[in-house]
Amino acid sequence: MKIRKLFAGLLAALLIVSSFAALADITIGVPNDTTNEARALRLLEYNGIIELAEGAGQTATKADVLTEGVEIVEVEAQMLPNVLPDLDYAVMNLNFVLDAVNAGFEIGDALVLEEESNYLPNANVLAVHGDNVDSDLTKALVAALRSQQVKDFIEQTYHGAVLSVVDDPTDGYDPDVDYDALAGTTVVIEATPTPHSEILNSVVVDILAAKGITLEVVDVSNYTQENPDVDAGVAFANYFQHQPYLDDQVSQEGYNVVSVCTVHTEPMGLYGANQTDLSALGK
After folding, report:
1. For the chain, what is the largest distance between any 2 Cα atoms, rounded to a whole number of angstroms?
2. Pairing state between β 268-272 and 112-113
3. What confidence tens digit (pLDDT) does each residue in 112-143 have?
4. The whole model's pTM is what?
5. CA angle 243-105-65, nearest 5°?
6. Which DSSP symbol is given to 105?
7. Which ranges in the chain belong to alpha helices (H)?
8. What domains does the chain contain, in order, with CATH numbers?
9. Neighbours of 128 (CB within 10 A)
């Protein structure tokens, strides 16, 4: 009888300890798309927060995390700000942080920021259908997006949360384009709200309007829509993604969508949710 009671007591103690251990796990939200999840995990690894399996690289997932006591929670990138109350931390693209702040969310400064060597290769691109790569309309869009006006707008508006990657900005126009032939044209471009639509509507619309070209910007928050829409001709171009994401989409889905220029980059950051500093991570 005593042995049974002792066993029951040990079992109860074990269950309590197991329960506390589960509760002690630190939850960190990361984007659930292939390229951004790997990027987020590498940020965490670089800062000594997690350890990844050897060889985990551009396609790393939560399955590659070797660290105990940390639970990686995969969430759609644009939804991460919405689920912050359920997490200890989250690794987010700064454009979604800006979206959340604009929507009234209270989000503090990043506790950890991505290294330049990681965020520069993830510059956001303008993408068009492969058949339109060399068209005058594409060249006009490229010149407008890679203009000094856009570069100045990014620097003055986003204060480091969005960074221009244009080293040789134009005056907004391509001297080889026949703008008179394009006058009266309407071009549809799909873009995520911040900063992409803001850049287009605040600067690019006016640059093209001066040459008689109407730019129609369609806000799309769903990452899965923009590339198939360009592939199908629903939109002439899109502006929302970085090159690794586009490469992954083309590889998996076979879209005839091609990037024609890089414009800006958005560093990732680790943000506190239910934790306000890194002490819960032993930092």
Report:
1. 97
2. antiparallel
3. 988 888 888 889 999 999 999 999 999 999 99
4. 0.75
5. 50
6. -
7. 2-24, 34-46, 94-102, 116-119, 136-145, 148-158, 179-182, 198-199, 205-209, 226-232, 243-253
8. 2-113+269-281 (3.40.190.10), 121-266 (3.40.190.10)
9. 26
